[in-house]
What does this fold into?
Amino acid sequence: MKSRQITVIANWKANLPPSEEVALAKAIAQEVGGALQAAGRPANLRLLLAPSALGLVPVASLLRREYPEAGVEVAAQDASLNSAGAFTGEIPADHLVGIAPAVLVGHSERRRDHAETDEVVGGKLARVVAAGLAPVLCLGDDLPNAEITARVTYVQAQCSAAFAAAERAGCSAAQLFASGLVIAYEPVWAIGSGNPASLAVAEAVASGLRNALNREELPVLYGGSVDAASAATWFGTRAVRTGLDGLLVGGASLSADRFAAIVRAALTVTEPA
Ligand code: PGA
It folds into this structure.
């Protein structure tokens, strides 16, 4: 059986100025580069760093110029709903081409702080796909005390609303899947709270999404208070066998040591190239 691709994404949000993002990328590339080499450079592990908009170009250039063998790539935290043009302050997806192969879309902080509705999220998905980039669609319930089935239903509905809006913006489900779409399940109550969802919840949501979309191979990551200690659980063989495909890491990715520990946990389930 072909092993699943494991993806680990560092989401630095707006925590650091670009000079510190470059220093952090350097420290991560050095620590992770050694670990990857020791593990035989696994072909089924993808590592992405998502700096702020200001850090995208310097971090991407650093990784390309100084650490090409580390295989660490850059992801954008967001892209504009608009194409290139008179849109002050926006970053069109087209302009990320050659810099960031993947783009987070619909992070709950964007939904909360920038009134990003499912319609906006779907429109952004369409822009990212049209630019030839891979969207990382972030979904998550804000139901801290709900039963698992309620969470699954909520996230399925959120996903279907984003897909429907993408379709209205000219991007079919088939195009979304062909783009390299990854879904990140990030329960709102788990982000930054120190209280991650249980493996059972994350697995139920992942399989609920795959069933609803009729797509067994859909990659689903988990995000929300992942740290070095919990990464071992997330990368336990059971999680990987049943289909969690990696992690989206916020706070713990702001330290090279903590992020490298998460990558080392991922390496226990990857295979040498
Ligand atoms: P956290 O953030 O790991 O700090 O909870 C995750 C995210 O928001 O992507």
User: Anything to note?
Assistant: The mean pLDDT is 94. The chain has one domain: 6-267. Strands lie at 6-11, 45-50, 72-76, 102-105, 134-139, 182-185, 220-223, 246-249.
